[in-house]
Every structure is written in C-alpha cells, then in structure tokens.
Amino acid sequence: MSDAERGTYTESEVIMSTVRVVTPFVLTFGLFVTFHGADSPGGGFQGGALVGTVALMLAFAFGIDATRRWLGRRVVTVAASLGVVAFAAVGLGGVALGGSFLDYTAYKALPLKKPVKLGIEAVEIAGIGLIVGGVIAGLFFLTAAGPDADVDAGAGAGPATGDDTGAGGRGGDAE
Amino acid sequence: MTDGLLPLLVAVPVLAAVAPPLLCLRTTGTGWYVAAVACAVEAALAALVVRSVFLGGAVRHVVGGYERPYGIELVVDGLSAPVVALVAVVSLGVLAFAYTAGPRRNSFYSAYLLLVGGLMGVSVTGDLFNMFVFLEITGLATYALVAADRSGRSAVAALKYLILGTTGASLFLIGVGYAFVETGTLNMVDLSERLAGSYGDRAVLASFGFILVGLGLKTAVFPLHTWQPDAYSYAPDTVTTFISALVSTVAAYAVGRIVLTVFTPAFFEAVPAARAAVLAFAAVSILAGSALAAVQTEIKRMLTYSSVSQFGLVIAGFALVTSDAVLGAVVHLVGHGLMKGGLFAAAGVMAARHGARTVGDYARLGYRSPVVAGAVGIFGVALVGIPPSVGFLGKWYIAVGAVRAGAWPIAVVVFLSTLLTLSYVARLLERLYFAEPTEPTDPAVGAGTDADAGAGTGADADSEVGARDPDPVADGGARADSRAPAAVSTGMVAAIVAAAVVVVALGFATAPFEAFLERFLGGVFP
Questions:
Q1: Is B125 helix (H, G, I), strand (E, B) or coil?
Q2: In a mutagenesis test of the A interface, which of B5, B10, B15, B143 is the best target, namely the one with the most A β-carbons within 10 Å?
Q3: I need a surface site. Which of A128, A161, A169, B215 has the fewest CB within 10 A?
Q4: Domain that residue A39 falls in
Q5: Within A63-157, where are the H helices?
Q6: CA B190 to chain centre
Q7: pLDDT per residue as tens digits for the range B242-284
Q8: Nearest partner of B108 among A141, A157, A140, A135, judged by Cα
Q9: Interchain contact, A73 vs B25, CB within 8 Å
Q10: Is the pTM here over 0.80, yes or no?
Q11: Structural domains counted in chain A
C-alpha cells in the first residue's frame, strides 16, 4: 500500500508552496463559517467540510501516508465520535431537563445568558462541525488506504465513517 | 413520561455506535459487548414504550418542542409498536447468534448498531422527510453490512444494492417533494389533513407513485427486487439473518404508514386506479417471487425470492385497506421477520456444520442436525401458512380481508402462492428427511444432540462439499465458506429454537395484535 502511494506521490514545489500559503486561510475560513450559523449565515456542516478539506490539501501536497501519520488515527476517530456524543448530549440534555429532544428552551433552567443560541451553537460546532470534519478526513485516508486496509487497525474507521455520515445526515436534517 | 423514551430509542444505538471505533484505539474485539449492552437497553426501552402503547394508546414526542406542522414528531402507535418490538427483539437475538458466528470486528458492530438506530427511526418517526433520513441511515448501514464478508462478490452485491437503494431513496424523496409542494407540510398527520380534497391532483398522484416505487425498491417487490438475491446470498450469514428479518420489513412498514396514515383509505376511494395499481404490483410480486423461489437450487436464493413473494402479500394487505387485511399485513410483517430470520440463521448453521448451501446438500441432514432441521421444518411449515403458526394467521387475515373487500383475484393469488410456497418448502423437507441414504459411511446418523454434533462435523463437511449438484453461485469449493459462521454453539441453536417457538406461539396471538391495532384501525377506518 505504501509502495503504491509512493508511486502516486510526486513532490512538487508549486503545490507545496501553494498549500503552505493557502492552508491557514482555508482553516480560518472554515472556522469562521463554523462559528456562524446560529443567527448568521454559516453552519457546522459547511464549516466542518472546509476544515476537513485542510487535511486533504496537506495530503495532496506532502503525501497521503505522511499526512496520515502526522495527523494520527486517534484525532480523526475521536473528532468524529465526539461530534456524535456532543450532538446526542445536547439533544438528550433537553429531555433530562424536562423538555423534549433538542429542546433548547429547556436549557433556560441553567444559568446561561442565551440558552437557545448556545444550544444551537453547541450542536453546530461541537456536533456537526466535528463529525463532518472528522469524517471527511477519515473517509479520505481510508479510501486512499485501499480495500485491503485493516479497518479496525487502519486510519479512521470503516463502517464507523458510514456511522458518522449517517449521524451527520441527522445533524444536517436538524440544522 | 414514556414519551421521553422515543428519542432514546434512536439515540441509544446511534450513540453506542460511536463506542466500537473509539475502543478500537485501545483494543479490538470489544464491539460485541458494546452492542450487547446497547441492544439490551434498547429492548428494555422498547418494552416500556410498547407496554405504554398497549395500555394507553399512541405515544408522541415533539422533537425540540416545535409542535406540528413545523417540528419533527416521533410517534409510536398500534401500527408501529409491533415493528418496534420486532426490531428490538431480533437485533438482540441476532446479536446472540453473532457471538460465536461472527464477524467479531469492532467496525461491524458499529454498523450493526447504526442499522438498529435507523430501523427504529423509520419505525417511530411521524415526519415524512425524517423518514427519508432514517431510510438512508438504514440503507448506508446495510450496504456496509452486506460488504462485511470482505469478498469481491459481497462488495459487488453491496455496490449494486447501494446504487439501487439510493435510487429508491431518491424516488421516495421526489415523492415527498411533490407532497411538500402541494401541501407545504411534511408531518404525516398534517399531510393527511391537507391532502384531503386534492386527491385527484397530478402532483398528489405523482407523489404517491414516486413514494410507492421508491419504497417498493427498498422492500424489494418484483420487479424491483434485483438487488436482493445477490445482497442476501453473498453477505455473511449473520448479516443475512439480520437484514432479511428487519430491513425490508421496515420498508414495508413504511408503505403501510404512507398508505394508511398519509394518503388514508379516502385516497384509494377517490382514485381507485391507484389502489388497483398497487394491488396488481403486489399480486405479480407474490406469484413471481414464489415461482422464482421454487426454481432455485441455492438455499439462500430460494429464501430471498420467497421474501419477494411474502412482501408482496404484506403490501397487498396494506393496499386492500380493510381492517382485516391490515391486521393480516402487520401480523405477516412480524411473522415473516421471525420466520425468515430463523430460516437464514438455520441455513448459516447448516453451512457451517455440513457445508450445505444447496437444496441437494440438505439430503438427510434431518438426521444429522435434528434440532436445527426440526426448526427449519417449523419455519417452513409456518411460511406455507399451516396452523398453528404466525404465518397462517397473517395469510388468513389477508385472504379474509381480500374476500371481504371483494378483491377475489387477491384471494386466489394468496391461495396460489401458498401452493407454490408448499412446493419449495416440501422439496426442502423431502431432502432433509426422505432423501435416499447415498452416503453409507456416515456414522452420525440420528446420534447425539446438535450441540454435540457441532464439533465433530468438520470432516463430514469436507466429504460433502464438491460432489453435489453443480451450484452456479458457490465459491467454487476451493476455499472455506467465508460467509458461514465460524463455529456453531449451543447458544446459536438455542436462538433458532427460540425463534421457532415464538413463531408457533404467535399463531395464538390474535388477541394482542388486535388490541394493538384496534385504536389505530379505529382512527383509519371510522
């Protein structure tokens, strides 16, 4: 697998320089979009997609294998998983506080300034943003690793990406 | 109080699906335990919800506190309660089967739990667009599970299913779009109120057509079934057991929900052609499925085509829109899930023990695996519709409903399909018990229990493979059958026997089914 990748990767000064310059802006723009969304245009899905793309750009410039090793499988898996957990926690928190699922008004019981806005932001940023970013990066590395990669021990996680795509779909629906 | 449990029914498995990949960072092989805990919790939640529906009628939960028509509503009523119970019970049962049968990868259980969440979501949602989302989650998880054999064939089968399943979901979405354009709402109850009076509109008719064809693809009724034989045959036996019992079942439930709750019987009265079209669709599926099943030599393919026929029956029951037929359809939906799940599980055990994949391979296995073969016999007889069994109950009420509705062709088709079902079940039973003993060197005839036989049949399996009927779909016999369970445990046999007992016991369960559906049917047929 690494042989095949070394075969496909060409070190290009043009691509590397471009990516070096562009990456911080893409990342910033992604975060900018992510952190808007509750009361202005933007959202976790679009922002998460942009942030996830950063990993793809780095991989194209510096080699997929090298980027995967640098990023680490843990980061990708934990990001996507935490997203699902955050989404569910905000949703079920509403039930726990006596409201219904994803009922942000239930958070008025807590000493928060703008509970509804904070609830939406939490789902957008910590939930959907993390899921989409993590899944895009994980799915890319997993696809690049080829069909013979050991899903349980490889980068990302196989059906787990399917899992998170699904949960992302749920998030997108609630968005 | 119990309404707070509805989001948990969906959230618990989805949340638990996150744990296996996280645990993967430290250990492997822990996925099964996560799934076991999640499915046990899920079963307890489902039991509470179903009990509450039984005692007090439909349970509603308004997501986010946005009342209809704006928000998403989760509802469990008399129609969905049996399906919720079936999903909870079967997912727990198949998990028991999977402990020894495998696959044991963590990622497998992630997809498994996600599928449970998707199936529950389709069953409990009261919102048409939300139903599409959950159908997609169900689909995505199923594609991953079908490919879990990790062989080329299963990957191709999963890809085929992915393409056709996505087409089906897209058609469903187009139909939902038409309904939304026409009414401006997505809530099922609200839709039914606003659709009343505009049944003749082209957009409404198009909506009905697209939704029905989309769900027909997901349910796999003839001629939209072409993904199913490959997907079922090349998936690991554990997966086939799981998805054959639940995935098409939930899609067929969605058909019933659309026909009865969204479009309501008044739509069929206003547009008799729509009813006639669905009934014709179902009747063709019943006959073609049975006929195709009767000519198969491979067991899993035979059972798949049988499913095509049985789901035709269920859809006919819903489309007849009489209370008897709907009762029959729901009973058959639940009954078929248990029978077919049990049959596929038994087929997996037979493949693991004796390498048997074709009808010919089943010769005299009734004496070598008496318990499992007995269960196959019970499931088969129930599938034909011989009392006392849940199969009889379902077919009986659908036939009675057809006669009372004056739809004689459907009654005749049900009868014909029973004969065709008998033809392939009888062929299987004849092989199991009455085939001439061609292998005199078999010392294990009639000896011991199934559990004992399990360990010692490896040699038998070797001697059996290869010399049998030419099998167009077998893996060539060169390498071990990767789809079959890794080993056969007493627990697996016990799970199959338990399913057989439930299939027979539910044959006496008219009263509980009627109690569930009484209020629901009272609302649909005033």
A1: strand
A2: B15
A3: A169
A4: 2-174
A5: 64-71, 73-96, 115-121, 130-145
A6: 29
A7: 999 999 999 999 999 999 999 988 899 899 999 999 999 999 9
A8: A157
A9: yes
A10: yes
A11: 1
